[in-house]
Specification:
With 257 residues, the chain is an alpha+beta fold. 49% of the residues lie in helices and 14% in strands. It is built from nine helices and seven strands. A four-stranded mixed β-sheet has the order 5-4-6-7. Strands 1-2-3 form a three-stranded antiparallel β-sheet. Strand 2 and strand 3 form a beta hairpin. Helix 3 (53-69) packs across helix 5.
Length: 257
């Protein structure tokens, strides 16, 4: 739901959708995130039950979409916090892949690693997809390595029934060819035009973040992408970036190179 509102607000320029996405994220952070862990349900003022893999990774994916609609530092910090919890409590470091339940969940007969899509995409597919994107955005190699190891773990299952692993195939595609990431910096009203230029032709494997120059503290490699005296853009493939772009026409041309 959050992801859909963020995408709609981002591409259709509907501020009410973006506001709704922000409210949903803020509600989850204030009500369903307790003692550095995510909770799964909320009813009648009561939040309880340990969240599962899907709850964490779908939320990370949604936050990355919301950040493209409107940047908020607290959201990227929340996404990183969630990702670190996933790595600590759900990731199988020895074999690769992510368990459906946390390592401190109640003891179960079976602790599965969901690979095949069902009514919703598989948790491992979205985990690999979202962590790979977040890893390239902030330069966190642990997330990128976890994606690669998860794809290795899932490969036999993917090869046997590829049509049942759409989410993991999306992850594989971006692991082989890292997403294009554009970081736009400058005055808030001006960078909106730059962002619209980037989004004129929507590309699935393209992420565009417009970060106002008033934001000075950023996580990871984003800290190196500071504003200059005029609007500028950092055009990157994964963590490798082209020379700084300071002209909107040059930014347009970058998409055709």
């Amino acid at each position: 739901m959050i992801k859909g509102m963020a995408i709609s607000g981002h591409l259709l320029q509907q501020d009410n959708f973006i506001t709704s996405a922000h409210k949903a994220i803020d509600f989850i952070r204030s009500t369903l995130f307790k003692n550095n862990r995510l909770l799964a349900t909320y009813k009648d003022g009561n939040a309880h039950l340990m969240a599962y893999l899907d709850d964490y990774v779908f939320l990370i994916d949604a936050i990355l979409e919301s950040l493209q609609a409107s940047w908020r530092n607290r959201d990227i910090e929340f996404a990183i916090q969630l990702a670190d919890i996933v790595m600590q409590h759900f990731y199988d470091e020895q074999n690769g892949g992510f368990y459906f339940t946390a390592n401190d969940h109640e003891s179960l007969i079976l602790r599965p690693k969901p690979l095949m899509d069902e009514a919703i995409p598989a948790g491992n597919g979205i985990a690999a997809y979202a962590l790979n994107r977040l890893g390239h955005l902030i330069g966190e190699q642990r997330y990128i390595d976890a994606t690669e190891k998860t794809l290795h773990y899932a490969w036999r299952s993917i090869a046997e029934i590829p049509h049942a692993h759409a989410a993991l195939l999306f992850s594989l595609d971006e692991a082989l060819k890292p997403p294009t990431i554009v970081i736009i910096r400058g005055e808030k009203s001006e960078i909106k035009q730059w962002q619209q230029t980037c989004n004129k032709d929507y590309q699935l494997n393209q992420l565009v973040f417009a970060i106002p120059d008033s934001v000075t503290q950023l996580p990871g490699l984003l800290q190196d992408k500071q504003a200059t005296q005029t609007s500028c853009a950092y055009f990157c493939s994964g963590t490798s970036c082209k020379p700084l772009i300071t002209d909107i026409k040059a930014l347009r041309n970058s998409f055709n190179e």
